[in-house]
Design a protein that fits this description.
By secondary structure, the chain is an alpha/beta fold. It is built from 23 helices and 11 strands.
Length: 752
């Protein structure tokens, strides 16, 4: 019996967490590859978990009166859910709010089987408690087995399933595995019925203790904070690398691992060492946030993930210490699931409305510190306890206010403590000193949480010598229009407007007469894309080699490429985020579009690939693919099928320009392998710029690849210096809509 039930719990958990990145991966092309897809998907999965635990709680209550009926009903419901397979997402483009569309699409695709999967672990544990088995007195170890199955299923997706199977094959294998689970539940149900003892049912159902509402709130709070923290660290990492299963799976896997350790490892030394290490790790990642550190990737990502894992373990260990006896088992799991949903809802629903910046992540880091020893988790200890809490709160608020006062004082003295150009002294005072103070007070959890939260939120909002003209948060990220001032070689001060998405600049314009149509950033007059207009379109030659009369921009940014417009040219801009269109067309921020010399500039809101696929009859002389959000890449725009869609919209002699600049990913083999398969001619150029010169002039390093049907179409570029053919690495597997692998391109992009 134990072997069958354990196998059922393990398989259900593996299927439960394997399907999460699988379905989110299927959703990405519909929503422009936004990192917020995972946050929205997790909200649905957590809500499904809550519904599953609610159903388990109800079936558990039924089991008090008729345990055999409850067991048979559960197996029957699981079998009925097979009718919803194989899972399939609804067709068509998203209509209405993106988050609601994601939830509705997932409910249609996998709602019933997913909820039934969520019921398996708590119900089988509950019914084992009503048998004569040796684990009946304490079935909680099976909770660790459930999380082990979840962890293996989750890790298998990016490292085994995604690299080996297409999406269609994944759907088939998952559905077949669910049928196997139903068989296990039926067989296990028969064995459970045989060993169920009425006396054990009564014992298991008798509440062994009274549980106060404060304790229930503690259960929810200790589940809510790690859930929010997991989503926060995932968004922080995937915004600047890629919205891909790998970066979703690692934090979620560690999240599950902390459950396994908290509920399965009962050695006091583990909890002791975690209480010692967590404050150190949190202080370290706080310094990384204060410094806005991005590189080296392995160190920064490791700091964030390590701090998250330790903080989540801290909360889950505290949660495990407050677990009730078996009479409250299903209620306990239900409230844990409710806490997880509240954490997901805070990140997915509340935070985008409440905050223009991504503040939920630093707030969750601070809240996790409340689980440190020294703060009662579910009851107050008289007047002395309240006085102690008041003292800790006062200390934390005072330290946060002191940090703000210190920043204001330093700037008044001409120092730039939060600037990328700040010196060692400014950084030691503004970052090292607060970090040291926070660690010193870690024995006072409330004071540490309030001080840490205040400092991190202040650092996130503090602009220093950068003036924020506009901040807008959408489903696709945070867009900020900034005013920058830099000193030029002649000592003069130049003023720029910059559009920033996440940590990456997406366009820049210098203010002043004569700069209304002067492109900068990745599009300046000496950039690779400028050569396309100068040589092919003839803007720097007497006659054009091939006039670019119709141009499509997949990704708008600031609209800088419209400055290359001329009379007789029509520009179509495809942009998934309406906020970007509003910003780029506002002449108070950027004038590239409003003063373009092109005959017309038209805007189409939606995913560029999908819109191009639907634009029958539209042929372009030039298509520019530049639709990355921050440094994250929308994978579906770089697949074989995507390149086929772009090429179908190229006029004879047309050119496809692909912007592949990236800090963390080497995308050259992705484009090169697609070009080889489609029989295209390709040439690329890396435009290297000195970092100091970039800060002063606004001309950034960029990498571009040009593709065409005929070699002659790229002849003007191929004959120029610095241009070379892109190279696909030996053994590199072509990306398709059914297959992609971020691990295969992770690394430093190659130079010229």
């Amino acid at each position: 019996m134990l072997l069958i039930t354990t196998a059922a719990i393990f398989l259900a958990a593996a299927l439960l967490f394997c399907v999460q990145p699988m379905l989110a991966r299927m959703l990405l092309p519909r929503l422009g590859g936004s990192p917020a897809v995972w946050t929205a998907a997790i909200l649905f999965f957590q809500a499904g978990l809550l519904l599953g635990y609610l159903a388990a709680h109800w079936l558990g209550l039924l089991g008090r009166r008729a345990p055999r009926v409850a067991i048979v009903s559960h197996a029957g419901l699981a079998a009925m859910a097979v009718l919803a397979l194989p899972m399939a997402l609804p067709g068509g483009m998203p209509d209405g709010p993106a988050l609601l569309w994601v939830v509705a699409a997932l409910a249609v695709a996998v709602g019933a089987p997913y909820v039934l999967l969520c019921t398996v672990s708590p119900l089988l544990q509950r019914w084992i408690a009503a048998t004569d088995h040796r684990l009946s007195a304490d079935p909680y170890p099976l909770y660790a087995a459930s999380n082990a199955g979840s962890l293996i299923g989750l890790l298998a997706y990016p490292f085994v399933i995604e690299p080996m199977l297409t999406l269609e094959q994944q759907r088939v294998w998952w559905s077949a595995s669910y049928v196997v689970l139903v068989v296990l539940l039926v067989v296990g149900g028969v064995l459970l019925i045989r060993r169920t003892r009425p006396a054990r049912v009564a014992t298991a159902d008798a509440p062994a203790e009274m549980v106060s509402w404060q304790r229930r709130l503690a259960w929810m709070g200790l589940a809510m904070v790690p859930s929010s923290l997991m989503l926060g660290v995932t968004q922080h990492l995937s915004t600047d690398v890629a919205a891909a299963p790998l970066l979703w799976v690692v934090p979620l896997s560690l999240y599950l691992l902390t459950f396994i350790v908290a509920f399965g490892v009962r050695r006091p030394g583990v909890a002791l060492w975690n209480r010692r290490l967590t404050p150190i790790a949190v202080v370290g990642v706080s310094m990384a946030l204060l410094l806005h550190a991005q590189q080296p990737l392995w160190a920064v990502a490791g700091a964030h993930i390590g701090a998250f894992a330790l903080a989540a373990l801290l909360c889950h260990q505290r949660l495990a210490s407050l677990r009730p006896q078996t009479g409250r088992l299903t209620e306990f799991y239900l409230l844990i699931a409710l806490g997880g949903v509240l954490g997901g809802a805070f990140n997915a629903l509340a935070a985008p409305v409440l905050f223009n910046h991504v503040l939920e992540y630093p707030l969750a880091i601070a809240a996790a510190m409340l689980a440190l020893p020294g703060l009662p988790a579910w009851k107050f200890r008289g007047a002395r306890g309240l006085e102690s809490l008041a003292g800790q709160a006062s200390l934390g608020v005072a330290l946060a206010m002191g940090f703000v006062a210190m920043l204001m004082t330093m700037e008044a003295l001409g120092l730039r403590p939060m600037s990328s150009a700040s010196g060692v002294f400014e950084r030691v005072v503004a970052i090292g000193l607060p970090a040291l103070v926070i660690y010193i007070i870690h024995t006072r959890p409330l004071a540490m949480a309030l001080a840490l939260g205040g400092i991190l939120v202040t650092a996130s909002l503090w602009k220093g010598d950068v003036e924020a003209l506009h901040v807008e948060r959408t489903f696709f990220g945070v867009h900020t229009v900034e005013r920058l001032r830099t000193e030029q070689r002649d000592g003069s001060i130049a003023t720029f407007h910059q559009l920033r998405h996440g940590s990456t600049a997406h366009g820049l314009q210098r203010l002043g007469p004569g700069f209304e149509q002067e492109p900068l950033a990745y599009y300046h007059r000496q950039s690779p894309i400028a050569e396309v207009f100068a040589l092919i379109d003839g803007q720097a030659t007497p006659e054009p080699y091939h006039p670019l009369d119709r141009v499509a921009l997949v990704g708008l940014g600031t609209g800088a490429l419209a400055s290359y417009g001329r009379r007789g040219m029509t520009i179509h801009a495809y942009e998934i985020d309406p906020a970007v269109v509003r910003i780029a067309t506002n002449p108070l921020y950027f004038t590239f579009l409003s003063q373009s010399r092109a005959d017309s500039v038209e805007y189409f809101v939606g995913d560029g690939r999908l819109l191009l696929e639907r634009s029958e009859g539209e042929l372009y002389d030039l298509i520019v693919l530049d639709a990355f959000s921050s440094d994250a890449i929308p994978v579906h725009l770089l697949t074989l099928e995507a390149f086929g869609a772009y090429l179908a919209r190229l006029a004879p002699g047309g050119v496809l320009a692909v912007h592949i600049s990236n800090v963390f990913l080497d995308l050259e083999p992705v484009v090169a392998s697609a070009a080889d398969r489609l029989g295209l001619y390709a040439t690329m150029r890396v435009d290297l710029r000195d970092p100091d010169d970039s800060l002063r002039t606004g001309r950034y390093t960029s990498t571009w690849v040009m593709l065409s049907h005929e070699s002659a179409d790229l002849a003007p570029l191929r004959q120029r210096p610095l241009w070379r053919a892109p190279v696909a690495r030996p053994g590199f597997r072509l990306w398709t809509d059914d297959y992609s692998n971020i691990l295969s391109v992770l690394g430093t992009p190659r130079g010229p």
